[in-house]
Amino acid sequence: MRTLLTGPFRWRQLFFLATRERAEPALRHRLGEIEGFAMPEAEAEELRRLAMIEEFHATHLERRLHEALEILEQAGIETMILKGAALAYTVYGSFAERPMGDLDLLLLDSGRAKEARDLLRPSGWDWSGDIRDEARYAEHHHLPPLGDRAGTGLRLELHTALFPRNQPFHGFAEDFVARRTSIPARDRTILIPDLPDQLLHICLHFAWSHVMQVGAWRTMRDVDTIVRNGTVEWPAFVDRARSYRAERCCYWTLRLARAITDAPIPDTVLDDCQPRYPSALLGWLEHRYLRRMLPTDATVQSARFDQMVWQLGIQPERSSRGAALPWNAMGPEAVGDTTVSGEEGL
């Protein structure tokens, strides 16, 4: 890596990617670990500034989370913390170590979702939608996002379910809630998924909801961090994935994470979850998914071709039981860009 960085290098492009993923602090820390390497002075100062802004954002985000939890607790609305915020407390140790732009809260009583939204709005959360937005989100798994009135770009999503209604992983959401655990955080006790369910949810969210196109860096880093935590009981995890017919989503998320981060995922786990394809075809699919996850200047994608390649690897017909494909089920939110070309796609 030192050799790569000391030659002609497109620092602006790297910073663009880091900013898109809110990875500036992690990038600065990693570059500082490279023995015998010093960044050019101007670029080092720019990265320091970007990292400082992101660290401030993380502090603000955690404060806003606990303000929201306090309001909901006082109203007796029981809430689970999902995704990045849950990982920040369970495997990263701080919000600064796990960048995110959204807060995701699962309301255990989905019938109180609009009440929860109305309670939160006076505390600095804006919703500029109208009745048309309500209709567009009617079949969705969360209400239209609330925006931070402070102008930080932070969004709060109040979830009534883990996935849209017409999804293939039947029974997972109910078991996910039933297996919840609690941990202390600041001056309260918070509800979070157990760690195997956090890993399984990551796999399903990335491979199915986002068709392996959105949030790649954070997903790969999350998988690597959970696995290196050393507490995953792999046979039980594979059994859990099979019980929801989710092996293919797990296979590709774990395989791609191992390819990118060298996460210590056993071969036996991948063998137990993989499609029964020749190794050459699996290798070709991996290459296609990596190109879509990590686009270059020359990358141009066809949405229809991407969908065909996704279906080939995930084999949704095995688990769909009549469920919609993700690009039909995800409602008003896109599952990923359909065309990537040039710098806009980075």
The average pLDDT value, as a whole number, equals 88
What fraction of residues sit in β-strands?
5-15%
Overall shape: globular
Sheet with most strands: 5 strands, mixed
**Helix/sheet category:** alpha+beta
N-C termini distance = 20 Å
Low-confidence stretches: 336-346
Relative helix content: 40-55%
- How do the SSEs run, as a string of H and E? HHHHEHEHEHEEHEEHHHHHHHH
Nearest-angstrom radius of gyration?
20 Å
The total of beta strands comes to 7
Strand line-up of the largest beta sheet: 1-2-5-4-3
The number of helices is 16
Assembly of the depicted chains = single chain
List keywords for this structure.
disordered C terminus, five-stranded mixed beta sheet, globular, 52% helix
Give a structural overview:
Among the domains are: 55 residues, no CATH class; 152 residues, no CATH class. The radius of gyration is 20 Å and the shape is globular. The chain is α+β, with helices and mostly antiparallel strands. The C terminus is likely disordered. The protein contains 16 helices and seven strands. The longest helix has 34 residues. The strands form two sheets. Strands 1-2-5-4-3 form a five-stranded mixed beta sheet. Strands 6-7 form a two-stranded antiparallel sheet. Helix content is 52%, strand content 8%. α3 crosses α4 and α9 packs antiparallel against α10.
